[in-house]
Amino acid sequence: MPLDRFGRDINYLRISLTDRCNLRCVYCMPEDIQFRPRPELLQDDELLTLARLFTELGFHKFRLTGGEPTVRAHIVDLVREIARLPGVRSLSMTTNGLLLKSLARPLAEAGLQRVNVSIDTLDPVKFKRLTRWGDVQDVWEGIVEAEKAGLTPIKLNAVIVRGYNEEDVVDLANLTLYHPWQMRFIEMMPFGEVAEFQQSQVITAQAMRQRIEAQLGTLIPVDGGRLDGEARLYRLAEGLGDVGFISSVTEPFCASCNRARLTADGKLRMCLLREYEMDLLTPLRAGATLSELKELVLTAVHHKPWGHGLAHNIVPMNRIMSEIGG
Ligand code: SAM
Predict the structure, then answer these.
(1) Is the pTM of this model over 0.85?
(2) DSSP symbol at 261
(3) CA distance 199 to 195
(4) What DSSP string describes 109-127?
(5) Contact yes or no for 264/41 (Cβ under 8 A)
(6) DSSP 202
(7) How confident is the model at residue 272 (pLDDT cuts 50, 70, 90)?
(8) C-alpha of 148 from chain center
(9) Residue 160 Cβ contacting ligand 1 at under 6 Å
(10) CA 246 to centroid of chain Cα atoms
(11) Of all atoms in ligand 1, which is nearest to the CA of residue 65?
(12) Could you report the per-residue pLDDT of 161-180, keeping only the tens digit for each?
């Protein structure tokens, strides 16, 4: 069991399969972003070597993310290989859903268990403005297909941005009256060159909750408002699904953080909002043994920061969200 120096059991790895994306969400990346050259990224065999190594260290929960994980070449084969590693108990994906209409079934058959789909509004015009490139109908069809393929319980993510979609929390929360889905609202976090926009346009979870309650009635805490992963859960009276709030900025959940992130270029990042990383790809390519690589991982785990420094205005500048894997 990999324990950090605060006694937290770090057993959850989020793997960014690519820094590329087929959207350009305003809160995530600049439109003219330059992606890393492919040779700088983990190749399939390198990724599988590292994934196996993490399972051998006691990691058992895995999430594939990006960039956009579904644009990675050979995604179905990669999922199949990761799913069959002994020690993988949970395998899920965070995706913008654009390609799920055709990929949901093959991914489920390959061993993917669940998806979190990002959908920030149901309004096609606002969706295009937020994502710069996307058509919300494609996402909706992807969600329907994912549910049919059994990638359940379906969780939906919405980042709420002042001036773009703060009213849309109501329509999105309303979905839980008719679908057994978990609709999660995320406070926007600041990263690198996008930080100024993110900090000026952030909407707090409390403001989102008030807006939903004013229109749809009381949000009843589920199990006393317990944390499900990073989301604090509520339910509308008569709701089939849950409404969750991920309040990383105003109410961080660092004490219960069990995550590490492997970036597409092979760095192990121990806190989303701290710059500290351990390079695994360079030693892997230089011929480090598996036990040497395991030592590096355990050192990084040991040094996992307690939490982020947003309250002291410490913003990570070395990467933006799409380069880390949300
Ligand atoms: N492309 C995939 C997607 O859209 O879900 C996976 C990668 S994306 C970086 C993962 C999650 O991070 C998405 O739910 C996205 O909305 C969220 N996200 C991106 N930028 C964010 C920010 N600045 N603050 C909070 N969440 C953010």
Answers:
(1) yes
(2) E
(3) 6
(4) HHT--EEEEE---S-HHHH
(5) yes
(6) B
(7) very high
(8) 22
(9) no
(10) 11
(11) 6
(12) 999 999 999 999 999 999 99
For residue 95, report the distance from its CA to the centre of ligand 1, in Å: 9
**How far apart (Å, rounded) are the C-alpha atoms in residues 193 and 98?**
26
Residue in this structure with the two tokens 């820094």, named with its chain if needed: 19
Q: What gap in Å lies between CA 61 and CA 54, rounded to an integer?
A: 10
Q: Check if 16 has its Cβ closer than 6 Å to any atom of ligand 1.
A: no
The whole-angstrom separation of Cα 303 and Cα 305 is 6
Counting from 1 in the atom list of ligand 1, the atom nearest the Cα of 117 is 5
The pLDDT tens digits of the residues spanning 208-247 come to: 999 999 999 999 999 887 788 899 999 999 999 999 999 9
What is the rounded CA–CA span in Å between residue 4 and residue 258? 9
Instruction: Look up residue 247 and give its two tokens.
Output: 């309040």
Neighbours of 63 (CB within 10 A): 23
Joined together, the tokens standing for residue 113 give: 């268990």
Q: With a 6 A CB cut-off, is 322 part of the ligand 1 pocket? A: yes
Is the CB–ligand 1 distance for residue 95 below 6 Å? yes
Residue 279: Cβ within 10 Å count? 14
Q: How far apart are the first and last CA of the chain?
A: 24
Q: Which atom of ligand 1 is nearest to the CA of 248?
A: 25
Cα(64) to centroid of ligand 1, in Å? 12
Q: Among 24, 68, 93, 94, name the best residue to mutate to test ligand 1's pocket (greatest count of ligand atoms within 8 A of Cβ).
A: 94
Residues 63, 93 contacting (CB under 8 angstroms): yes
Q: How far is the CA of 28 from the centre of ligand 1 (A)?
A: 7
Q: Return the ∠ at Cα 197 (arms to 193 and 203), rounded to 5°.
A: 135
- CB distance 14 to 325 below 8 Å: yes
